[in-house]
Design a protein that fits this description.
The protein is an alpha/beta fold. It has 19 helices and ten strands.
Length: 430
């Protein structure tokens, strides 16, 4: 079975390419070329049935991911399936199953079976849980644990996988020599760094990268090269540890492309606003234009409970500068496992950031939505305004709570509505 990248290079247009080209309003041959060049990915595992394919990368709408999954504290899969349904309803383009609770295989298979959108995972989570249960510690994890987990998840239909293969001994050394306030905050990054430091060995994900590529090639799994060295606070942004990892990811991107395996690059993290654009441009340069998948970036550390907002501020700038994929941040970030309400808020907030960037970049058709809303507002067509809202039910609840059903203007201005006044006098002037 060939990958989307291999087929694109062979001049073949797949069903998935046709679907994405239609969604985006882009010429399918241009899309095929960009897939072949690695500038666009279509994360579509050959075993994920019922998938609506989406493209991520150059010239396409910015996409949004929602994280779900069980934990040791909340191991039940049913609430996570409800979160999946809510994420899909709110317009997410993918979900990542970050399950670490009981029955990880069953949870993942249920999510894939119920998901019409891309599903991503972080295989080291499951490999680590296995090592702890069977041998007592993360540092007792084996290469076989990692490769077997990657293979099993690929076979189940996972569309993209975060692999922390850039957390090398050199990256950890660079981080330690420079010094960090928060060290490593990536869960996967901390697992692999702890393993390396205890065993005094190189990262097995880096050393066995060719074996990982063979698995990804077999099932057309897109590699999401993980940012295990991402900064967890503003003070650690853009340091030597982060940049050393990014250099390695650029090397691994080329190795993956040589095999015809699709690649995305994951990015920070907590980054001061004035450093975001430089971080995006650096990734695009060092990783040869591969699609960039960012968490936030969060532009301040002081807003627990409101980090969906700090992430949207950073995400808009990152996407305007060239990032292609936003991982949502919910109000529960840094505080708790997100609820279904948090998932709703996180997806909608990230979609606002993504759309704002699409407009700023002049993406064809992006402003049409805003123009339609403006036209509806001009004539006070409330039904149309609510239908066009990014979150129609929420907008309708706000409208109905403080207005009477037959009220033309809103209760903010009442009899002194600027729109009504201008409509009246401009028409009178004619």
């Amino acid at each position: 079975m060939a990958t989307q990248m291999q087929l694109a290079r062979a001049g073949k247009i797949t069903r998935e390419m046709q679907a994405v080209a239609k969604q985006e309003g882009i010429d399918v041959n241009l899309l095929r070329k960009r897939i072949g060049d690695g500038q666009v990915v279509i994360c579509a595992n050959v075993n994920h049935k019922g998938l609506t394919p989406y493209g991520v990368g150059k010239g396409l709408r910015v996409k949004v991911n929602a994280n779900i999954g069980t934990s040791s504290t909340y191991p039940d899969i049913e609430p996570e399936l409800e979160k999946l349904a809510e994420a899909v309803r709110c317009g997410a383009h993918s979900v990542m199953d970050l399950s670490t609770g009981n029955h990880i295989d069953e949870s993942r298979r249920a999510i894939i079976a119920h998901s019409p959108i891309m599903v991503g995972t972080v295989p080291i989570y499951q490999a680590t849980v296995k090592a702890i249960k069977e041998r007592g510690a993360v540092v007792d994890m084996t290469v076989e644990d990692l490769l077997e987990t990657i293979e099993r998840q690929a076979k189940d239909g996972v569309d993209f996988m975060t692999i922390h293969c850039g957390v090398t001994r050199a990256a950890v050394k660079a981080m330690r020599e420079e010094g960090r306030l928060m060290d490593i905050v990536s869960r996967g990054g901390s697992f692999i760094a702890g393993w390396m430091l205890h065993n005094k060995a190189e990262n097995p994900l880096y050393e066995h990268f060719d074996e990982i590529l063979s698995i990804c090639e077999r099932y057309d799994v897109t590699l999401s090269l993980g940012d295990g060295m991402r900064p967890g606070c503003l003070a650690d942004a853009s340091d030597r540890g982060q940049i050393t990892e990014l250099l390695t990811l650029g090397e691994l991107t080329q190795r993956a492309w040589d095999r015809g395996v699709q690649v995305m690059i994951e990015g920070p993290g907590h980054v001061p606003y004035d450093q975001i654009e430089a971080n995006v441009k650096m990734e695009k340069e060092l990783c040869h234009g591969a699609p960039f998948y960012v968490l936030g970036p969060l532009v301040t550390d002081i807003a627990p409970g409101y980090d969906h907002i700090t992430a949207a501020i950073g995400g808009t700038l990152a996407a305007t500068a060239g990032a292609d994929f936003l991982c949502y941040v919910t109000p529960a970030e840094h505080l708790a496992l997100p609820t279904i309400e948090d998932v709703h808020t996180g997806v909608i907030t990230s979609r606002i950031a993504a759309h704002a960037a699409d407009v700023a970049k002049g993406l064809p058709g992006a402003r049409d939505w805003d123009i339609a809303m403006a036209e509806a507002r001009k004539v006070l067509d409330w039904d149309k305004q609510l239908a066009l809202a990014i979150d129609p039910a929420y907008a309708a609840s706000k409208r109905s709570a403080r207005n009477t059903p037959d009220e033309g203007a809103c209760s903010m201005c009442g009899d002194y509505c600027a729109v009504e006044i201008m409509n009246s006098y401009l028409h009178e002037d004619k």
